[in-house]
Every structure is written in C-alpha cells, then in structure tokens.
Amino acid sequence: MGKRITDVASEEFARLFTGFEHTAYRLETLQQYDVSYEKEPFAAFLAGHPMPADPSKDEWAGMITDAVAAGKVLQRVHVVEEPLTDYLRYEIGWSYGPNVAAGEDIRILPAVHWLAPPRDYWLFDSRDLWVMEYAEGGEFLYAEKVSDPAEIVRHCYWRDAALHLAIPHSAYTRRAELLRRAS
After folding, report:
1. What is the pTM assigned to this prediction?
2. How many whole angstroms separate alpha carbon 171 and alpha carbon 125?
3. pLDDT of residue 20
4. Cis preceding-peptide flag for 83 (omega within 30 of 0)
5. Where do the structural domains in the chain lie, given as residue ranges?
6. What is the pLDDT at residue 183?
7. What is the reported pLDDT for 170?
8. Are residues 108 and 166 in contact, defined by beta-carbon separation less than 8 angstroms?
C-alpha cells in the first residue's frame, strides 16, 4: 500500500492541485458522492431553490482559473448510469458549471460504453496516481498513492479511452434534458 490521504480538506490534498506541472485528470465512477460541503447546495437543488452562494466552490473554481491561466490542463470524466440519479442531475446541472466556466474540461460517459473497472482516481502529469476509495454510501475514505509503473500506465490508458469516448459537458446537459423530458 502507498501513502494515504484521509482528509480532502487537508493541506496535503490541496498541494496535489497546486503542485502538478501540466495535467490533472479525474475519473469519477460513483453515482452519488456524500461530502459535507455539498449538502446545502444539493438540498437547494432538490427543493427547486436557486443555487446558494458556495465559498468552497468559488475557491475550487479559482484554483482551476489560476491553473488554466498558467497553461495547465484540468480534465474530468464522470461515468454515469442512465437514468441519472438526483445527485448526478445536481452535479451535472449545478456543480460542474462553475468548473467548466473556470476552464476545466468535463465530459460525461454513459456507463454502457465503459469497460474498465469502476475506480475513481486522480492522475497528475501522467505519473502521479492517487486512487480514491469511498464507503458504500459515497463517503470519502482516503486517496492512496500508487507507485507501480504498470498501474500508472494502465490508468493513463483508461484516461485516454474515457476522454475519447465521453461526451463534452455542454452536449451532455442537452442530452440529459432530452432524456428527462422523455421519461
């Protein structure tokens, strides 16, 4: 086992996003994440209220803006099952918007097109791999550094395949709306 980070709010975890040189890539595979900083906006979304102010989201979007301004690339693919869960409707409809506006390339991949194991991870500069582990309910447990070169190459391959197969966020939001209306 490699080094573990157990708190996504820690300085150690934050340094992953300020220390990379060129690229940061995230694969998300869960249909729901349970994180404390999303509880209020998620409840507002479900209740049909306007999006509340969210300082943590503003901080994250600022980090993206700074990274993109420095010539760095941030990409994310979320593998989704359709029809979408309420959480995914929230994430795609509300939570991803500020990230995209800040310059993150977010894409959505319907699970029917994904053959790799469902495994969340962050990959920085195609060499610094952190596998994310969650409890059954979507609660974050830890991020574990993987140093095995073969595993890193495998995750780079999965990144490339996912980016190739996935639908850009803006196109997927239109698709999701059509699917919602059809159901």
Report:
1. 0.94
2. 27
3. 98
4. yes
5. 4-182
6. 66
7. 94
8. yes
| Average pLDDT per 10 consecutive residues for the chain, totaling 183 residues | 92 96 98 90 95 92 98 98 94 96 98 89 98 96 98 97 96 81 71
Question: What is the rounded (10 degree) CA torsion for 141, 11, 107, 29?
Answer: -10
Amino acid at site 155: H
Q: Which CATH superfamily is domain 4-182 in?
A: Endonuclease Chain A (3.30.870.10)
Nearest to 78 by CA among 182, 168, 180, 175: 168
Structure tokens at 122: 């962050």
CA angle 36, 40, 41 (to 5 degrees): 110
DSSP 8-class letter at 96: H
- How many other C-beta atoms can be found within 10 angstroms of the C-beta atom of residue 47? 7
Q: Are 7 and 13 spatial neighbours (Cβ–Cβ below 8 Å)?
A: yes
